[in-house]
Write a structure and sequence with these properties.
The complex is a heterotrimer of chains A (428), B (274) and C (317). With 428 residues, chain A is α/β, with parallel strands linked by helices. Helices cover 45% and strands 16% of the residues of chain A. In chain A, the strands form 4 sheets. Chain A has a 5-stranded mixed sheet with strand order 2-1-3-13-6. A 5-stranded mixed sheet of chain A has the order 8-9-10-7-11. The longest helix of chain A is centred in the N-terminal third of the chain and has 17 residues. Chain A starts with a helix and ends with a helix. The relative contact order of chain A is 0.16. Chain B is mostly helical. The longest helix of chain B is centred in the N-terminal third of the chain and has 32 residues. The model of chain B has no long low-confidence stretch (mean pLDDT 89). Chain C is mainly alpha-helical and 317 residues long. Chain C has a two-stranded antiparallel ribbon with strand order 1-2. Chain C has a two-stranded antiparallel sheet with strand order 3-4. Chain C has 13 helices and 4 strands. Classes of the chains: A alpha/beta (428), B mainly alpha (274), C mainly alpha (317). Chains in contact: A-B, A-C, B-C. At the A-C interface, helix 3 and helix 17 of A face helix 12 of C.
């Protein structure tokens, strides 16, 4: 008898297994259901926020239902999108990291949005976005996707630890030279152990941070078209030499870390200064028991940064009516109001100039001006480097950065290797 | 006296290693009950104070771990259900029948034990993609429906049954499948249970294959859910992460603690006899 | 031979394997028997053996995100790998991982099995549970936990290791110590399982052997060396083979703890395949690596079956 129940249970399991994941029996005929794959790149209940925003949109637009699908970090989301696209079953709307635009185009995965954009908000839509954010949306003269969750790297410093080290807590380093000097004073050693690092340049996306340093040195790494690379320039080598100086020679910063490990390190006061995305500001605010500041990244020849984050795209291989509905959603999500709302909830920079006039955001910023630093840094910011097969390029760059700060290769050799290998990748 | 000292030393040694093995899990529990700001103390605080049960609620709020649990249960029972069928049938003929090619065919089964999904995931992924089965629960089960290991174990068990018993049964009109169902399977129950437990545990803990074939939260299993949750938190909020980890590990651990004897027996005899 | 699936045994022409019965149905020698194997064989064919052929086939093509239509390139992929330092680094990492985990895990498992096999009374079940429970946890969960434990600043490991005089190591963030960290964590996770295997085998050793040895004045170490160890040889071999195959399958820990870093020092074969196939969308290269992996396994299978297989097979008779 017990055997029978066992068999029954298992039969049920097998049956249930076959059940399709989104078994929609008979949906009302006019309802357009759109799948929306999105990543979460910073700590916080952002999946919930996205859920709330899409709920609101769905209520305001009865003919459309957007189903948000949290897909992990940037890398896994890209992987899922690519898998789905290649299987001929793409998500209708998705967000991936901005450097992937050339790859998306190579896969013929998305549609250009020029026509939609021209008509939006009576023509005033596109100019309202910050220029730096617009750069990664364009390729070969067309607009391919809309800025949504955008950021720049910023510089965080622990005011208490500054005080302890005899430094003025209100004066963060302005230049590379100052950074090095202050980092030396802020590094505390006990014997051979480092109890407190002076400055941490976060790993994980250290390729992103490196690009910023190269910008601060007045140069670039990949041209906007993604066809030429400039890794072995004098300026890039100098930037890497500076890193090696900090992390290998002077040992004022840890040579390796992960993107997720460094914010807790900062909160635990294991590092006095930190390079990281503006997106972690909310997390730091909620977790740190000390006063800290946010500033532009120190300059060398100039202040410099590049943008980061993800844009909203519409898949190509879906019928026109779905594309139209998807555009409705994107336009809604990127309205001034919602851009402001999203910025407040997530800590990302609001993507539109007019968002900063939205009263709730103004109020919010009045209470904590640190959120404005990233926006103000935008004047020095450029688009993020992008090229086809960017994932591979990233790995190549990160590998050489890692090896260089360990002293395994000289900066010159490292950048020469990157140049060579990336050129091979782009040609492939 | 010497004996006593010997025994004491043994207890100390084993106890020490037991402690080392258990400590991480205690730390896991402890962290999961702390407040976010209480985690960054320079010396480890073993007893969380104040206690924060809220982490668990927040974990559920942020990701549908309940769904993940249901999916995991469906997948592992589905796998086992089909495995029991394929394995029993195959082990039966390997154990009690002579036929051409038996040796070679059995070798194919044995070889499968040494070709894990980690070696075949890419072509299998492409296969499933071509038949549009990606992102389904079935996809997570398919590669595991045949089990060389189970066939091998069960064949050993079936072989234990004496020939005379079968002959007698045939004379009584209970041959073939009837014999299998009414005699062999009941007699091989310990082996079946052992295999079942091993299969359940190993597929409960699958990661690579489900990672590759699932996209959306509605089919995600606990392990994938945990992996995604980690990314969601960008590795920053340890109390939440540890709470999620406790939740993911608790079901199987709880069942293990209750049925530990059975589990341990099963795993002990999963190797070759002697 | 009585054919249990039919009431009447049709007359079988002696030499033919396939024949037509008087009732017009085809039968072949053995008949229903192969049907029993069909479900298993079908799944084995599709999900184990076809993949081997398929990946070998794909490895001869250039097929990546920039070349959406396969291009035949023969052995070019293999040549690329031969000259790719990262490929050799990955293999080296697998080797180091195996060297780091296998002997230690086996020794630890054997050591504890022998101890736990003593007359420890009620405590014995507690010990067994305590030592074995990590097997019940998914590797990703354990990996998450150990990332936390290995945190250089506030992690448990460095804190207690400090008492033993160890310097503070950056573990997962140090190119020299990331792989050792993963090794340590894997040993913790896996030794319990092997301990149980040894425990089962130990219980098969007749107590009289030990008694006789004791009577002759042999000490504990002597008894272990002369009796236990040799008699456990088959088990050790089994454990060894399982451990080797497991060591090739390392993925979860790397995925969660280091993503192959720092500087690819923890990049292992399965992770490298995953990277190529699902990050770089270089399916051709992924297939090439898969084929190489399978070849390594097949070599291992051949070796195992040659020297052990017969014993295993016939002993199970």
């Amino acid at each position: 008898m017990r055997q029978r129940w066992g068999v029954l249970l298992m039969a049920l399991a097998v049956f249930l297994a076959g059940a399709p994941p989104d078994a929609q029996a008979q949906a009302p005929s006019k309802l357009i259901r759109l799948t929306f794959y999105y990543p979460v790149g910073v700590a916080g209940p952002l999946a919930k926020v996205i859920g709330e925003m899409t709920d609101k949109f769905n209520k305001e637009n009865p003919g459309v239902e957007v189903v948000p699908v949290y897909s992990g970090d940037y890398d896994p989301t890209l992987q899922k999108v690519q898998t789905a696209v290649m299987a001929g079953n793409p998500p209708d709307i998705f967000i991936v990291e901005i450097s992937e635009l050339p790859t998306l185009l190579a896969m013929n995965a998305i549609i250009p949005l020029d026509d939609y954009v021209k008509k939006a908000e009576r023509g005033k839509y596109w100019e309202d976005f910050f220029p730096a954010f617009r750069e990664n949306s364009l390729l070969r003269g067309r607009i391919w996707w809309i800025p949504f969750q955008r950021s720049t790297p910023v510089f965080y410093w622990n005011k208490e630890l500054f005080k302890k080290a005899g430094l003025d807590p209100e004066k963060p380093p302005q230049t590379w030279a100052e950074l090095k000097e202050m980092a030396k004073r802020l590094t505390i050693r006990e014997g051979n152990e480092v109890k407190q690092w002076g400055v941490t340049i976060s790993g994980g996306w250290n390729d992103w941070l490196f690009e910023a340093f190269v910008r601060q040195n007045g140069s670039w790494l990949i041209n906007p078209d993604g066809t030429k690379v400039n890794f072995d320039s004098k300026e890039a080598v100098e930037a890497l030499e500076f890193w090696v100086d900090l992390m290998h020679k002077e040992k004022v910063g840890p040579p390796h870390s992960t993107w997720g490990s460094t914010p807790p390190d900062f909160v635990a006061q294991r590092t006095a200064m930190l390079y990281h995305s503006t997106g972690i500001l909310t997390f730091l605010r909620n977790s740190a028991k000390f006063d800290f500041g946010v500033a532009f990244m120190p300059k060398n020849k100039t202040f410099g940064a590049e943008v980061g984050g993800g844009n909203l795209a519409i898949s190509r291989k879906i019928p026109k009516d779905r594309q139209d509905a998807a555009w409705k959603f994107i336009e809604w999500m990127t309205s001034s109001e919602n851009a402001a709302q999203w910025s407040m909830a997530s800590g990302y920079v609001a993507t539109r100039v007019s968002a900063y006039n939205v009263p709730t955001l103004k109020e919010f910023l009045a209470k904590d001006a640190r959120y404005l630093v990233a926006r103000d840094q935008l004047q020095y910011a450029s688009g993020k480097m992008m090229a086809p097969n960017f994932q591979k390029i990233r790995e190549i760059l990160k590998r050489q950065l890692d090896d260089a700060v360990d002293g395994k290769v000289t900066p010159k050799e490292a950048m020469a290797t990157v140049q060579k290998q990336v050129e091979a990748v782009i040609k492939r | 006296m010497r004996r006593r000292l010997h025994l004491l030393a043994t207890h100390l040694a084993v106890g020490f290693f037991s402690l080392i093995t258990v400590t991480p899990y205690l730390w896991l529990l402890s962290t999961s009950l702390k407040f976010k700001t209480e985690v960054f103390t320079p010396t480890p605080q073993w007893l969380p104070w104040p206690i924060n049960f809220g982490n668990y609620a927040e974990v559920f709020d942020r990701a549908p771990f309940g769904t993940f649990l249901v999916n995991t249960v469906i997948v592992v029972t589905g796998i086992l259900a089909v495995q029991l069928v394929t394995v029993t049938l195959a082990a039966y003929v390997f154990a009690r029948r002579q036929f051409r090619g038996a040796n070679i065919l059995f070798l194919l089964f044995l070889a499968q034990m040494m070709i894990p999904i980690h070696a075949t995931f890419l072509p299998n992924f492409l296969t499933l993609r071509n038949v549009d089965l990606l992102n389904t629960r079935v996809a997570m089960m398919l590669p595991f429906f045949a089990s060389g290991y189970g066939t091998f174990l069960l064949r050993q068990a079936f072989k234990q049954v004496p020939r005379e018993l079968e002959d007698a049964a045939i004379i009584d009109g209970c041959g073939g499948l009837r014999f299998l169902w009414h005699v062999l399977i009941p007699l091989a129950r310990p082996t079946l249970v052992a295999f079942g437990l091993i299969s359940l545990v190993s597929h409960w803990n699958d990661y690579l294959w489900p990672l590759i074939v699932t996209d959306t939260p509605d089919v995600r299993t606990l392990t994938i859910g945990l992996g995604m949750f980690v990314q969601q938190e960008s590795g920053a909020d340890w109390t939440l992460l540890m709470a999620a980890t406790v939740f993911v590990t608790a079901p199987l651990l709880a069942i293990f603690l209750v049925f530990q004897r059975k589990f341990i027996e099963s795993f002990m005899f999963s190797g070759l006899k002697g | 031979m009585p054919d249990s699936t039919a009431v009447v045994t049709p007359e079988r022409p002696s030499a033919q394997a396939l024949w037509l019965t008087p009732t017009g149905r085809f039968r072949f020698r053995g008949g229903g028997i192969y049907l029993y194997l069909l479900p298993s064989l079908a799944f084995l064919a599709i999900f184990t053996y076809y993949p081997i052929a398929f990946s070998t086939y794909l490895s001869l093509f250039r097929w990546n995100v920039l070349n959406p239509d396969k291009v035949f390139v023969g052995l070019a992929n293999y040549l690329t790998l031969w000259h790719e330092p990262l490929f050799w680094l990955v293999l080296r990492n697998n080797l180091f991982y195996a060297l780091g985990t296998i002997p230690t895990t086996m020794a630890l498992a054997l050591f504890l099995a022998v101890l736990v096999n003593q007359k420890l009374g009620a405590a014995r079940s507690i010990y067994r549970v305590a030592l074995f429970y990590p097997t019940m946890i998914p590797m990703v969960a354990a990996a998450m936990l150990w990332v936390w434990i290995f945190n250089p600043g506030i992690g448990l490991f460095n804190y207690y290791a400090g008492f033993l005089g160890m310097p503070r190591i950056e573990w997962l963030y140090d190119r020299h110590w990331a792989l050792p960290a993963i090794i340590i964590m894997s040993i913790w996770k896996n030794f319990g399982y092997f301990m149980l295997i040894y425990l089962a085998a130990l219980q098969g050793i007749p107590a009289e052997l030990y008694e006789a040895a004791s009577l002759e004045g042999a000490g504990a170490w002597s008894r272990f060396r002369e009796i236990t160890f040799p008699l456990l040889a088959p088990t050790s071999l089994f454990v060894f083979v399982v451990a080797i195959i497991s060591s090739f399958q390392v993925f979860d820990q790397v995925f969660v703890m280091t993503q192959g870093g720092p500087a690819d020092q923890t990049n292992v074969l399965v992770f490298y395949i995953y990277q190529n196939a699902f990050r770089f969308w270089d399916i051709g290269m992924g297939a090439t690596l898969t084929t190489i992996f399978i070849c390594l396994l097949l070599v291992l299978i051949a070796v195992v079956f040659r020297y052990v297989g017969r014993r295993v097979y016939y002993e199970a008779e």
